[in-house]
Every structure is written in C-alpha cells, then in structure tokens.
Design goal:
single chain; two-stranded antiparallel sheet
Length: 328
C-alpha cells in the first residue's frame, strides 16, 4: 500500500496507535525497573516512589515501534517489511533484552534468511512465547475503529512473523481485541458491565487454544476476589506478595508470565486490564504486584488501558521518566 492509498483516516489511526504505544512503553520501562527488589517494594507502597529516570525500554517497546512504523508507512501489516524492521531494530540495539530464541531468529533475518525459514528453524511448529502479545498495542490502536475480524486478521499477520504457533497467534489476537475494545468503549470505561464485556468480545474472537481457556478462567474470577491489603512478606524469587491471598490465587489460576508464554501471560494481563480499565496507574501497580515477567505484563496491560483512558490518563511523571522513543 503506497502513501497515496493509505486510509483516508490514517492520521487519526496513527494518533490512536501513538496513544497505545505510549501506554505500552511506559508500562514496559517502569515494569523493567521493578526487577529490583527495592524499586518493586517502593512503588507498591507509593506509585510516585519510582526509580530515577530515564527508564530504558526493552525489546517489548522496540518491537512495538517496528509495528508502529510499518503501520505508519503501509496502513496494514506487511509481513516481509515487518520482519525486516524487527531485524533492523535488533541489529541496531541487540541489548534491549531480547530472549535467546528471538535473538537467534532475528540474527538469521539480519543475515538475509527468509523469516519463514528462520522461524521454523528456531521454533519448529512456531513459537508460543508472549512476544506476539507484548508488542501488539499500536496495532490495536490503529485498527480500533474497524470491525473485530479485521483486527484479528491483522494481529494474526503480525504474530506469525515470529510466533506461528497457534498459542502465539491466539495471544496476539486476544491482546489486540482487548485494546480495540478498550477504545470502542472508552466513554463507559468505569462501568462494571463494560469491564466484564471485554472478556465476552475477546473470547468471541480468540481461536480455541490454551490461551482462550485461560481467558475463560479470567472472566470467571475477574470480579470475584477483592484486592487484599498490602503485606511486607515477599517471595524474593518471584516477587509475589505471599500474604496477598487474592493475588496468589490469581497467579495460580492465570499465571504471571513466569513461563514467558502467551498461555501464562495473556489471561492475567486481560484480568488486570479489565479490572482497572478506567485507571492506568491502578492497572500497572496491580500488574507489578503479581511479579513474573513484569515488564512484558505491564506493556500488554498499559497498551490496552491507555486506549481507554487516553493520554491524560497516563501519569505525566511516568511519561517523562521513560526513555525517549526512537521512531524512524
């Protein structure tokens, strides 16, 4: 798609993609600081007690920037171009925190190997890591005013470049649908029925998978367990609050990204986003409390909730402390 054939509402689509990118990248960068025990405990006591900025963003944001740039240029997911963009960003900044499998895959693409061959070589049968969901925010924003099947199709194309496994595809689709739902229902974001409705729409469009089963569990328990009081008793290996019975149960049922898979990441993230669809700060703090893959969880949740609360809903001091985004 050339510039002349971009959608007539391309500028408004990019504005939404930018909003989602802000929410995703702030969550990612802040979440990354919370792998430090000191910063983890401090922010749970006071959301303003964050690490000193600038907070470097990780591969979550780097790959989201790749999607953002492709949509800005093409108005749709061009898989070959997206693979090249992912590889170029990796080659320029390989220290952003890419996982071992992603590093091998993108290194092969950098060397000129077709992404389809590289993906199958590195991940026979496809990857089901949570990378397909962590980067999807800009896509959810760009297509948010489209019908859900269009969003699901574009999310599938985006995911398949690196995550061709059915679970990887399902995770990317579910997170994209949730983000679009947040935008479509932003005016009623505080309504409990709206929050519950997020699960109905996501389940309607997420393929049969373990990811979908996890989201079904999330839907059942999303509003049953109240938030328990904060406790100082922490498990240092997982950074889970041991005395917080509700969060322990949530992690047991839904995961917290510790396995770095869509199956144990996306259901929890949708639970956190739906619970706090009207409050970005509460959504991110809740996500941090669960421990696990904190930066990725916060990236997914941040991208979804930002589309509901708007740019003003993201704390200004958090945005200022996040490292400046490098958009090409």
């Amino acid at each position: 798609m050339s510039t002349s054939t971009l959608p007539i509402d391309h500028s408004s689509r990019i504005a939404r993609a930018t909003l989602a990118l802000e929410g995703l990248s702030v969550g990612d960068a802040l979440g990354e600081t919370c792998f430090s025990d000191h910063h983890f405990e401090a922010i749970l006591e006071d959301p303003k007690a964050t690490a000193a900025g600038p907070w470097p963003y990780t591969d979550d944001t780097a790959m989201a920037l790749g999607i953002y740039e492709i949509l800005h240029q093409h108005g749709r997911i061009d898989q070959d171009e997206l693979a090249r963009r992912f590889a170029a960003r990796f080659e320029a900044q390989p220290w952003r925190g890419y996982g071992p499998g992603a590093m091998r895959l993108l290194s092969q693409v950098v060397s000129g190997i077709d992404w389809r061959i590289a993906s199958e070589t590195i991940f026979p049968g496809g990857s089901f890591g949570n990378g397909s969901a962590m980067r999807i925010g800009p896509l959810a924003g760009y297509f948010a005013d489209d019908d859900y099947p269009v969003i699901a199709e574009q999310a599938q194309l985006s995911a398949a470049v690196t995550h061709a496994h059915a679970e990887g595809i399902a995770g990317g689709i579910a997170a994209a649908i949730a983000g679009a739902y947040a935008w479509k229902n932003r005016d009623d974001r505080a309504d409990e029925d709206t929050k519950r409705g997020l699960f109905d729409i996501v389940l309607k469009h997420t393929p049969q998978s373990e990811v979908r089963k996890g989201i079904e569990r999330a839907a059942k328990i999303a509003f049953e367990l109240p938030s328990a009081p904060r406790s100082q008793l922490l498990d240092p290996s997982t950074k889970t609050i041991l005395f917080d019975v509700s969060m322990v149960l949530i992690v047991q049922q839904l995961g917290n990204g510790s396995r770095i898979s869509c199956q144990d990441t996306v259901p929890f993230c949708l639970w956190a986003a739906a619970r706090h669809l009207d409050d970005y700060t509460a959504a991110i703090i809740t996500t941090i409390r669960a421990g696990g893959d904190i930066d990725t969880n916060c990236a997914i949740v941040g991208g979804i909730v930002a589309l509901a609360v708007g740019m003003k809903g993201i704390p200004d001091d958090w945005r200022k402390d996040r490292e400046e985004l490098l958009v090409s």
